[in-house]
């Protein structure tokens, strides 16, 4: 008896077909000539991993700030901030090096600059990541929790020579100041999709974000 078999409505079926078509078109763009693997959106957000990409403008602004803060020949570490990393890689004319510490192994396509990172094990890092070897560390902890910020802060303090650029919720202001000595900037970061929580940037140096 076919009566018990659930059927998709024509509207739902059309929406599903449209989704698959868009997915195919995106994949087609990725394999076509001239595709930039570092462009924002080249790797899709995975909300199950609490991923929310910055808008193009915000990622560029943060990338430029990091380059200025790092200085000529500087080293930049991006912790759970892949869209800033991607923007940094687009800045071919600048003199700096960068690596990305990220839980999502899809970013291993970036080769040796990718370092697998789990905030639950903040100091479980490769031997070649020497302490205090980065001119600036940019971090965007994946969860708005004291535990997540506290553990990510351990990694930040281990890696940075001093400068910190933290991106997290406004509700974490007191904890961020306590753990990292950072202050909220006037600059308001935006995401490609709106977040429910107010989001802000924090630094511990004189930055261009005020």
UniProtKB/TrEMBL annotation:
Official protein name in the record: EFMT1 methyltransferase
GO terms assigned for molecular function: nucleic acid binding; protein-lysine N-methyltransferase activity
UniProt keyword Transferase, yes or no: yes
A Pfam family of this chain: N6-adenineMlase
Annotated GO biological process: methylation
UniProt cross-references to InterPro entries, sorted A to Z: DNA_methylase_N6_adenine_CS, Efm5/EEF1AKMT1, Mlase_EEF1AKMT1/ZCCHC4, SAM-dependent_MTases_sf
Keywords: Cytoplasm, Methyltransferase, Transferase
Catalytic activity: L-lysyl-[protein] + 3 S-adenosyl-L-methionine = N(6),N(6),N(6)-trimethyl-L-lysyl-[protein] + 3 S-adenosyl-L-homocysteine + 3 H(+)
A single cellular component GO annotation: cytoplasm
Superkingdom in the source lineage: Eukaryota
Presence of keyword Cytoplasm: yes
Species annotation: Lanius ludovicianus (Loggerhead shrike)
Cell compartments where the protein resides: Cytoplasm
């Amino acid at each position: 008896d076919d009566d018990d078999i659930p059927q998709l409505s024509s509207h739902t079926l059309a929406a599903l077909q449209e989704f698959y078509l868009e997915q195919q078109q995106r994949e087609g763009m990725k394999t076509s000539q001239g595709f930039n693997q570092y462009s924002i959106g080249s790797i899709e957000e995975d909300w199950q991993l609490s991923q929310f990409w910055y808008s193009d403008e915000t990622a560029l602004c943060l990338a430029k700030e990091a380059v200025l803060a790092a200085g000529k020949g500087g080293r930049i570490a991006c912790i759970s901030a892949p869209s800033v990393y991607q923007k940094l890689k687009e800045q071919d004319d600048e003199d700096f090096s960068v690596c990305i510490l990220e839980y999502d192994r899809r970013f291993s396509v970036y080769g040796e600059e990718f370092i697998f990172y789990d905030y639950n094990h903040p100091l479980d890092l490769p031997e070649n990541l020497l302490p205090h070897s980065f001119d600036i560390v940019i971090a965007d902890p994946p969860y708005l929790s004291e535990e997540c910020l506290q553990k990510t802060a351990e990694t930040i303090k281990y890696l940075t020579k001093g400068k910190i650029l933290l991106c997290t919720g406004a509700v974490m202001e007191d904890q961020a100041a306590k753990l990292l000595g950072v202050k909220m900037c006037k600059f308001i970061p935006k995401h490609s999709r709106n977040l429910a929580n107010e989001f802000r940037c924090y630094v511990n140096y004189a930055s261009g974000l005020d």
